[in-house]
Structures are given as C-alpha cells and as structure tokens.
C-alpha cells in the first residue's frame, strides 16, 4: 500500500499576498485545493479559489523538492470582471527540525494571468506592477506573463 500525502501550506507571494492550501494524495501525485486573497488595490482586491496538481521528489537530508501547477480563479465585481491566474511553482522545502513535519518552503513562480475586459476595465493589480515578460490586451481580454517568488510554511 502506498503512503498517503497530506499537508497544509500557508505562504505569501507578489501575485496573491495571502495563500492557504491543502495537499492530498500520494507523494508522486497530489491534488491541491487553495484559497487566497487577491492583490491589493482599489479595484483589484478580492478572493481567489485555486486547484492544482503536484509531485514531490525524494527527500535529500532535510530538503525536499516539489513541483505544482495551480489554477486560481479571482472573483470579480460590478466594476471589474473576474480573471484567472495559472502558476508553475517549483518549490524547495526545508525541515525546520530534523524528522519534524514543519517545513519552510520557497521558490520561484511563473505566472500567467488572463481575463476579460469590460468597458476597457481590467483587474489592474494582477501582474500590473510586476516585471512583465508579456503584456498583451485588446478590447475584450488581457494576457500577462511574469516571474515571481513565494515563501511560506508547510505543515
């Protein structure tokens, strides 16, 4: 029988400032369910729900690599439509105490934001002030790509 994988995580990043997730499955593949606070700003705050898939590598001493792909759905309102954020997240976890469950996690992210535009309005905070590798929009939609960073705890 395969060992099960069950962890909770809390982290912060430049894209979604406050995040929490539960990861459940097997070490080779797990499902991630998350909730996050949207980027700050007058027209861009809100709540995001996320779902993703990931895998964990073999521990190397107190270090454990993992790789996640997350799809976040950011809520909209009357003034700004909802949008989505796809993240590729290679992570490295470090056990704070040898043999313990509490781990410090961190790593880069690759962020792709997409969304609709209504009356020329977009979710201004989503990737707006980042080092954009791609920033494309037309009268109906937008697309932004940028690198990021996240840091948090795994329980």
Flag low-confidence runs. none
Mean pLDDT: 85
Give the SSE order as H and E letters: EEEEEEEEE
Helix content: under 10%
The backbone outline, from C-alpha atoms, is elongated
**Number of DSSP helical runs:** 0
Q: Strand arrangement, largest sheet?
A: 1-2-3-4-5-6-7-9
**Quaternary organization:** single chain
**Biggest sheet architecture:** 8 strands, antiparallel, barrel
Could you tell me how far the N terminus lies from the C terminus, measured between alpha carbons in angstroms?
23 Å
| Overall number of strands | 9
User: What structural class should be given to the helix and strand makeup?
Assistant: mainly beta
Radius of gyration over alpha carbons?
A: 17 Å
Strand content: over 45%
Explain what you see.
The protein has strands at 5-13, 18-26, 29-37, 47-56, 63-74, 83-95, 103-116, 134-137, 141-154. Strand 8 and strand 9 (141-154) form a beta hairpin. With 155 residues, the protein is an all-beta fold. The mean pLDDT is 85.
């Amino acid at each position: 029988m395969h060992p099960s994988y069950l962890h909770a995580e809390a982290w912060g990043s430049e894209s979604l400032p406050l995040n929490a997730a539960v990861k459940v499955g097997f070490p080779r593949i797990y499902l991630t369910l998350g909730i996050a606070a949207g980027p700050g700003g007058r027209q861009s705050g809100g709540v995001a729900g996320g779902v993703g898939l990931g895998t964990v590598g073999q521990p190397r001493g107190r270090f454990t690599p993992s790789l996640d792909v997350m799809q976040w759905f950011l809520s909209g309102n009357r003034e700004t439509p909802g949008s989505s954020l796809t993240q590729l997240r290679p992570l490295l976890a470090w056990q704070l105490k040898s043999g313990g469950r509490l781990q410090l996690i961190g790593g880069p992210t690759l962020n792709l934001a997409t969304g609709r535009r209504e009356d020329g309005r977009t979710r201004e905070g989503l990737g707006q002030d980042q080092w954009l590798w791609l920033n494309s929009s037309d009268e109906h939609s937008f697309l932004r790509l940028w690198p990021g960073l996240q840091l948090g705890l795994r329980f």
